[in-house]
Amino acid sequence: MMESYILDWVQLIFRWLHLITGIAWIGASFYFVWLDNSLENPPQWKQDKGIKGDLWAIHGGGVYEVAKYQLAPEQMPAQLHWFKWEAYTTWLTGMVLLSVIYYLGADAYLIDKRVADLTQVQAIGLGLAYLAGGWVFYELLCRSPLGRNAYIIGAILILAAVGIAYTLTQLFSGRGAYIHMGAIIGTIMVGNVFRVIMPSQRALVAAIEKGEAPDPAWGARAKLHSTHNTYLTLPLLFIMISSHYPMTYASANNWVILLVIMAITAVARQYFVLAHKKVNRPMILVAAAFATLILAIVMAPKTTRVEQSGAAVSVTRVQGILQQRCASCHSAMPTDDVFTVAPGGVMLDTLEEMQRWATRIKARSIDTHDMPFLNKTGMTDEERELVDRWVISGAPGA
Predict the structure, then answer these.
(1) How far is residue 6's CA from residue 270's CA, in Å, rounded to a whole number?
(2) What's the CA gap between 107 and 144, in Å, rounded?
(3) Buried residues in 302-338 as b, exposed as e (16+ CB within 10 A)
(4) Burial level of 227, CB count in 10 A (0-12/13-18/19+)?
(5) Residue 1: DSSP 8-state
(6) pLDDT of residue 303
(7) Distance CA 233, CA 230 (A)
(8) How many angstroms from the chain centroid is the CA of residue 27?
(9) Which residue, 172, 189, 30, 175, is CA-closest to 97?
(10) What are the residue ranges spanned by the domains of the chain?
(11) Is there a contact between 87 and 95 (Cβ–Cβ < 8 Å)?
């Protein structure tokens, strides 16, 4: 009991830190993309100083003047602000969460025997291999001659995403597959900062300090990887919250849903990138919204024969099913070996409580089969049908 309590606090603290640092990292990324695309041609006297673009802004009661140099200022300032720890800390806290939740709790969160009969060691090894392999593949691709063509590299990365999403869902639970896809994306993004963006900035500063002309190739490379990060932010944000929406990861076609949502969010990001350049393309957002609507319609739970039958159902039998299959976790005094507190505050000790949560029971146990968690209590299809019929008939009492 105490071990579970301590782990809950570890998760709480690192989720909080992960959220804070993630906001700082993605917020800084969004700001600088907006800034870079919003710069205007400066007056001639600024151009003579090597300034490529400038911007005037007002915020918090003050007026700001921001200038970007083509390559280097006339003299390096004594204090230069670097943006790196936001990215590093987001990744580090994310890895702690991945380890505590999905690796220490692999049997509960990562391994789904209905998908693949893996041991804890095998599941953790595969997860880490995908993280490392995804980043190495991306690095080699970007450094290869193919990386010089944005369309070719984009096509290859899309094909790789399809392959990774599919294979992950054939190895792990839906939730575990989604979070590993997010971890791969996050690793690539922080790798871009660590291996490309920061070295290019150090090379720029070193050249300035030596009085040499900076190599423009470094800046171009950093710009490419920074652009990749820009389009990966919204897909990553979705994956970060996906565990709250089993209608996505618990679907039979969860890998397709993941890819479609990633594509929709990346396209939506394109609208804002263009808008920063004063190019207004509202149809991009309209198309993204329409695609989301179509996806929601396709994913909608289908009307079953149980829903159509209207057959009577034994309330006592339903209550027994929920007590046997669900109350080990969803109770005032859970007996489950993992969940020592009722998840989401949902308790099913009494018929009144079952009636209160009836629509949620249908959404999580009938429409998506997300609950019981990884079906660890062995709820059968016949039992789900009986519960479904009870909910549809209005969740009547005894």
Answers:
(1) 42
(2) 39
(3) eeeebbeeeeebebeebbebbbebbbbbbbeebebee
(4) middle
(5) -
(6) 58
(7) 6
(8) 15
(9) 175
(10) 2-38+83-299, 44-70, 305-392
(11) no
Residue 18 tokens, joined:
């992960």
In the chain, the amino acid numbered 164 is I
Q: Give the single-character DSSP code of 363.
A: I
Tell me how far apart the alpha carbons of residues 99 and 379 are, in angstroms, rounded to a whole number.
29
pLDDT of residue 311: 57
Q: What pLDDT, on the 0 to 100 scale, is given for residue 291?
A: 97
Pair 224, 142: CB distance under 8 Å: yes
Q: Which residues of the chain have pLDDT under 50?
A: 306-309
Strands (E), 17-101: 51-59, 62-69
Q: According to the model, what pLDDT value does residue 137 have?
A: 96
Could you tell me which CATH number the domain at 305-392 has?
Answer: 1.10.760
Stated length of the chain = 398
β strands within 4-120, DSSP E: 51-59, 62-69
Strands 51-59 and 62-69: antiparallel
**Cβ(65)–Cβ(54) under 8 Å?**
yes
Contact 256, 277 (CB under 8 A): no
Structure tokens at 397: 């009492």
Q: How far apart are CA 229 and CA 168, in angstroms?
A: 22
pLDDT at 86: 94
Question: Which residue is it, tokens 């290869």?
Answer: 144
pLDDT of residue 304: 53
Cα dist. 87→40, 67, 195, 215 in Å?
Answer: 28, 24, 12, 25
